[in-house]
Each structure stands twice: as structure tokens, then as C-alpha cells.
Amino acid sequence: MLKRLLIIINGFLLLLLILGFLTPYISANYGSYFPLISLLFPFILLANIAFIFCWLLIKPSYALGPFLIILLGYKHIPKHLHLTNAAEKTECSKLSIVSQNLQAAKYFKKNKRTLDKHKSEEFGAWIKTLGPIDIFCFQEQRYHANQLLKEHLSSLNIHSVDTIGTGIYSSYPFVDKGFVSLGGNTKYAAWADIKIKQDTLRVYSVHLSSNMISSKAKTVLDEHDLRKSGTWSNINSIIQRYGKYSLQRKSQWDKLEKHINTTKHKVIIAGDFNDVPQSYLYKKLSSKFKDSFKVGEAGIGTTYKEIPGLRIDYFFSNESVHLLNHKVLNQSFSDHYPIKLEFCLNN
Question: How far is the C-alpha of 81 from the C-alpha of 59, rounded, in Å?
Fold first, then answer.
């Protein structure tokens, strides 16, 4: 009886894993469940790996099924986990860029109009620990966050306004700058052409549409009673919303890509994309731009603190930017960890 139950569970998980391998190729137009499977993919993969060890103890021959299916989809794993830095060695003048979603400076608020002085000083001290950073990109940086950043980054060239949640801060001069109207619930991306010695780098600070599911997900986790119709109603709402905003992010990216295609400069796209490496959107981006995670430290690169293994913040670049090192920084001022990229242009 136990063996039969395990076979049924593992069979279901293998079906989800196969669908997970397909999700980068399937738009949410074909169903809201596909984006959700892409979100859960790392956990589905881990569950199937656990079953391999389980079968090795109970019935070794049964381990062959999940092992072969995982092997067939091995090319998806490096998007979630890697062991070595894939950067090619080169001699160049190293530059650095840091990006973070500041969660509207929620951590720093004293009241509706002012910052907590001591927490603001914490942020300033942390900035100093980073050493020289050439460019910062921030998202969700409305009123309080703008106060915070102007206080601690006032020596830099600033491209930001209080009514738009994305901004760029550079130690090098801007030769051009603006905002791209993307629609969705995040509205705009900031961009700037930055003069770096004899070269020009275009940087985008991007925040694609949020999924708007946090409150319902919290309700489901708090109540966790599957016998209640309200719980299933919330679960269905979460699935539908995730699919809806996945489509919205695709539409936003299509608009942003058109803007990117107008420049001949080297390009770095930084920010909170609210989509995972197994998503349809990630497939579109990574087919044209490089994901800096591949030159990062060994590991899974979690960027959203609330869910282990969730990577939704990225640096993408075109081929003419030489990527050196990607790192997730351990900082607790937001629900997103900052990410740092070291790169060079003279390659």
C-alpha cells in the first residue's frame, strides 16, 4: 500500500517536472498554471531528486525513472544552480554596478513623511562597506526611498523623480537619459547613457509588474485548511493573478525591448523582473542577453528573502559587455537582496 502511494506521488511529481521543462516555451496565454509551475520548479525538481534516494532505499530499480527524466532536462538546472564562475579571464578596467528593490524604504520609515535617523545611518554605513561602486540601480524608490538615496548618494549623478519608482545613480556623467512607459502596475523603467572614459554604456533600471498575491498567499498559509471553500477560492485567485501578471510582464518586456533596440551602445539591464529562471519571460530575455548569474559564486542565487531559492532580480547584458563576477549581497533593509555585478567594457 505504501509503495503504491509513493508511486502515485512520484508519478505526479514527474508529470509536473516534465511540464516544468516545457514552461519556458509556453506563454501564460495557454493557461495560468504554466507560470505557477515555473515558479515552483526548483521545489518540484528537489522533490524528484529526493524520490531517487527514497527508491534507492526501497526499490532501487524504480530510481531509474526520475533519474532519466532529470537527466533529459539537465540543461535547465544551470539557470537555478551552478558550481563555478563561467567568466572568461581577461585583463580589463573593472567596473561595478549594484541593483536592489528597496521595498519603498519600508524599513526606514519613521512616519508618513520622515525617515528613521538611525536606520538611515545604517544604510549609509552599508554603502561605505561596498567600497567604490560605479553605478546603482534602484526599484520601488518612491518618496521615502528618494529621501534616503539623495541623503547618501548625493555626490553621484542622479536620474530619478519622486513619482517614478526606478532610478539610476552614477559616478560617471550621463550623456542622455529618460524613462520608458511600460504600463502594468509598475509603469516605468529608467534608462541612462553613461559616458565611461571613451565608451558609452546604456543602463536600464527595471521593475516589471508585481504579482499582487502576497496577501492572499499569507491568508492561505495562515489558515492552511483545505476543507474550507474560501481556501480553494484564494488558491485559485493566486493562480489566476500569477498568470495575469505574467502576461503583463511579457507585454512590458516587448515595449522595453523595442526601446533597447534603438541603441547601438553596450547595454546592461538591471532590476526586479518578478519572474523566475524557468519562466517564458526569462527564456525571451536569455535568448538575446547574457544572465550574469552564470559568472557568479557557486549556489542558487536567492534574491527574494521570503522564499528560499527564489531568483527574480537580474543583470542582463548584451555580448559586448564582458561579465566578470555576480554576487548576491547579504543585506536586510528590504525583502529583496541587492545584487552586484563586476564587468568591463574594453574587451
Answer: 29
Phi, psi of 59 (to 5 degrees): -150, 90
> Closest Cα to residue 96, out of 153, 124, 149, 137?
137
In order, the DSSP letters of 295-318 are GB-SB----BTTSTT---EEEEE-
Give CA–CA dist 116/113, Å, rounded: 10
pLDDT tens-place string over residues 97-128? 999 999 999 999 888 888 999 999 999 999 99
Q: How far apart are CA 326 and CA 87, in angstroms?
A: 10
Where residue 229 falls among pLDDT bands split at 50, 70, 90?
low
Helix pair 214-223, 229-260: axis angle to 10 deg: 150
235-283 pLDDT, tens digit each: 666 677 778 889 999 999 999 999 999 999 999 999 999 999 999 999 9
CA angle 262/141/281 to nearest 5° reads 50
| Rounded CA separation 271/340 (Å) | 11
The answer to whether the beta carbons of residues 137 and 203 sit under 8 Å apart is yes
Per-residue cell: 78? 544551470
**What's at 166, amino acid-wise?**
T
What b/e string do you get for 191-221 counting C-beta neighbours within 10 Å, with b at 16 or more?
bbbbebeeebbbbbbbbbbbbebeebbebbe
